[in-house]
Amino acid sequence: MADAGAPAIPVPVLLVTGVLGAGKTTLINSLLNADHGLALAVVVNDFGAINIDEVILSGTGHPVFGLKNGCICCSLQGDLLRTLRAILSVRAAPDAIVIEASGVSDPRGILEALFDPVLREAVRLDAVVTVIDAEDHDPDDALWRTQVRAADFVVLAKGAAIDPSALAALRATLASMHKTLVFAADRDGGVPLDLLLAGGVRHGAEGGIDPSPRLRDDRFVRLEWSSPTPISLPRFQATIQHLAPHLARAKGILCVEGPPGRTYVFQLVGRRATLTPAALPAVGAQLVLIGRSGMFDARRAAATLETMMQR
Ligand SMILES: Nc1nc2c(ncn2[C@@H]2O[C@H](COP(=O)(O)OP(=O)(O)OP(=O)(O)O)[C@@H](O)[C@H]2O)c(=O)[nH]1
């Protein structure tokens, strides 16, 4: 875990959205109880005066911070920022922060809050997960569509009881909205929690990527690549552009050739890729790529990396 005050790398934030009763708390509960060894902190926003979700999640051993009587996408934005600062001010920052939005939240307001100029040095949005009630949802509802549009990963809750054709229709709606990373909580082996928490696979004091293979889920394949020396940024960008259609997730720490020469944290979640400058004592590059089994050929990707990065 990072030291107090100024984590060397911003702490990743997983934002969980979904309409009222969709299954957000249930998903977060399984994240908190899973065997990942990560120290998580949770911020829960309940729209009403009593924060039931805070009580439910408090038994998991991870610190839970409740925000009630309003919505963190609007009236409670300031409270959200204060809470995140409080979480980061403890001696050892968590490996990741999970935020449960209230069921009426527009995720755009929360994303706006996370781009606060002071906070963005310390926390980084890692992924947005939208939970959908497979039994009861309205694809014409504006809030539903806004939440789905914001999603990097979609989780379908309560899918076991519904007709396969209804589930197929929902998947087709999501595909028409360009959502391909869709996981059914009650079917197909459930939600790959390791994938949702991949951003929390964090760094020791020396700032390297944790090399232990955490992805035990055989629906996904993982490839690690490293370079002992700084890499060319344009070559890296071209290589990732080439590989991105086959990837579900990627992350890395990259020292790039100068001048001026800089270190970046690279993140790719779904279709969103970011490069954030970081003050890390890294010398070369370390990269982790994750793709779906059958769609991502790790051996071929390794060969592509070797060839394209050396051109
Ligand atoms: N069968 C089934 N029930 C689920 C699933 N996910 C959630 N539920 C049930 O749905 C109800 C609502 O779940 P929550 O996780 O509290 O939903 P939420 O989105 O956090 O609700 P709010 O915070 O009120 O917006 C609970 O009774 C859960 O047990 C699922 O995948 N399958």
UniProtKB/TrEMBL annotation:
GO cellular component: cytoplasm
Domain CobW C-terminal: from-to ranges: 220-309
Cited SMART domains: CobW_C
Keywords carried by this UniProt record: Chaperone, Hydrolase, Nucleotide-binding
Entry-linked InterPro entries: CobW-likC_sf, CobW-like_C, CobW/HypB/UreG_nucleotide-bd, P-loop_NTPase, Zinc-reg_GTPase_activator
Pfam families: cobW, CobW_C
Record's catalysed reaction(s): GTP + H2O = GDP + phosphate + H(+)
Keyword RNA-binding: no
Molecular function GO terms recorded: hydrolase activity; nucleotide binding
Sequence similarity: Belongs to the SIMIBI class G3E GTPase family. ZNG1 subfamily.
Record's function text: Zinc chaperone that directly transfers zinc cofactor to target proteins, thereby activating them. Zinc is transferred from the CXCC motif in the GTPase domain to the zinc binding site in target proteins in a process requiring GTP hydrolysis.
UniProt-recorded name of the protein: G3E family GTPase
